[in-house]
Write a structure and sequence with these properties.
binds flavin-adenine dinucleotide, globular, 9 helices, 4-stranded mixed β-sheet, alpha+beta, 367 residues, 25% helix
């Protein structure tokens, strides 16, 4: 725990468009915006907002936010802190990366150094500081598997703490940071990686890409993950019409086993599937069941490529809602509501959006 040094000059801009700072390319202006190039600037920026009784929003790469058309009436603090350090530690390597480091650069360097633990998380947009927020995960790995500690700034006291994983309360696309969004700023994350370790091949689609008994290198796993993501437009590629998204718009529902059975029975009764076993389901902690939101959406009659003016459902993945250009956030919210309503009407399931809503009250209206 430590205090932050003072004496920082902030370069605060007024009335800054936020859409270009998000992967959806949607949303209005920030009343004020500042780039924080070091941790002390984050503290000063928070103090600046407090002195004016303005709300402060921490923004990373903008790949998991839906910002209202009327923008953000406060100070947006863009985390631009840089730095990565790899340290040997008795059979493991610890990697500490500043919150503003681009996530995929960190994964790429870890793989290039032959350090296992992050390879399946290749190609996820955004910055390191956001990865603990929703416990970023893909292809059988999540950051909670390797996070050793998270360095945070307590927004109220302005003191810095190192949080152990237990204190972060990681769960599927969830953490203490997501549940208490105004409490901490993540300043850096430390991961424990395994030198020369085997890649994780827990996810069926990834394992199948190599075939039974294969022992691919970390670099080969990274390459295949990037290719699988590219095919689903889950990699941001110039010119891809599906490129403006937040990735998955909804989380996969985690429900009690009895509720999963009821959804399967309903799907059979409505002719969406012939037998209950056809519904995809995976075991979740505590005897719960994880369902596939994408499957529910498609079986509720929402097809890939469905278009609604300037927005649509990705042609590559039913779980991704995309902005095709020229649209307001309101159009995306209307589509999201339509998708949620269809799933609810068909299966009685309420889908929960994955991104952080800024100035938006779900289900889908600006507040
Ligand atoms: C094409 C695409 C594919 C994706 N695939 C995946 C995937 O496979 N798995 C997955 O989990 N996610 C995925 N995502 C979602 C997103 O990339 C991740 O959630 C990512 O970690 C968000 O990082 P960001 O820096 O862009 O965060 P932002 O969008 O800038 O912020 C997201 C939230 O975190 C908060 N935040 C950001 N930085 C900090 C900080 N330093 N301290 C405190 N709070 C902070 C923000 O206030 C906001 O609430 C995908 C998104 C896209 C566009």
């Amino acid at each position: 725990m430590s205090d932050m040094p003072g004496d920082v000059t902030l370069s605060i801009r007024d009335d800054v468009p936020l859409a270009p700072l998000t992967t959806l390319e949607l949303g209005g202006n920030a009343r004020h915006l500042v780039e924080a190039a070091d941790d002390a600037a984050v503290v000063e920026a928070l103090r600046w907002a407090e002195a004016r009784a303005l709300p402060a929003l921490i923004l990373g790469g903008g790949s998991n936010v839906v910002i209202a058309d009327r923008g953000f009436d406060g100070l947006v603090i863009r985390v631009a802190t840089r730095g990565r350090r790899f340290d040997d530690a008795s059979g493991t390597v610890t990697l500490t990366a500043a919150a503003g480091e681009p996530w995929d650069d960190v994964v790429a360097e870890s793989v290039a150094r032959n350090l296992a633990g992050l390879e399946c998380l290749s190609g996820i947009p955004g910055l390191v500081g956001a990865t603990p927020i929703q416990n970023v995960g893909a292809y059988g790995q999540e950051v909670a598997d390797t996070i050793r500690s998270v360095k945070v700034l307590d927004r109220a006291s302005k003191r810095v703490h190192e949080l152990a994983p237990d204190a972060c309360a990681f769960a599927y696309r969830d953490s203490v940071f997501k549940r208490q969004p105004d409490r901490h700023v993540v300043l850096a994350v430390t991961f424990t990686l395994r030198p020369g370790g085997a890649p994780a091949l827990r996810y069926r689609e990834l394992a199948d890409a190599f075939g039974a008994g294969a022992t691919p290198s970390l670099a080969e796993v990274r390459a295949v993950v990037l290719e699988l993501r590219r095919k689903k437009s889950m990699l941001i590629v110039d010119g891809d019409p599906n490129r403006r998204s937040v990735g998955s718009f909804f989380t996969n529902p985690i429900v009690r086993a009895a509720d999963a059975d009821a959804v399967a029975a309903r799907a059979v009764a409505r002719g969406a599937i012939a037998t209950r076993e056809e519904m995809p389901r995976w075991p979740a902690p505590g005897g719960a069941v994880k369902l596939s939101a994408g499957w529910l959406i498609e079986r509720a009659g929402i097809r890939k490529g469905r278009r609604r003016g300037p927005v649509g459902v990705s042609t590559a993945h039913a779980l991704a809602l995309v902005h095709l250009g020229g649209g307001p956030t309101a159009a995306l919210l209307e589509l999201a509501r339509e998708v949620g309503d269809a799933v609810h009407a068909q299966f009685g399931m309420t889908l929960v959006p994955e991104p952080t809503m800024i100035g938006v009250a779900w289900p889908g209206t600006e507040n």
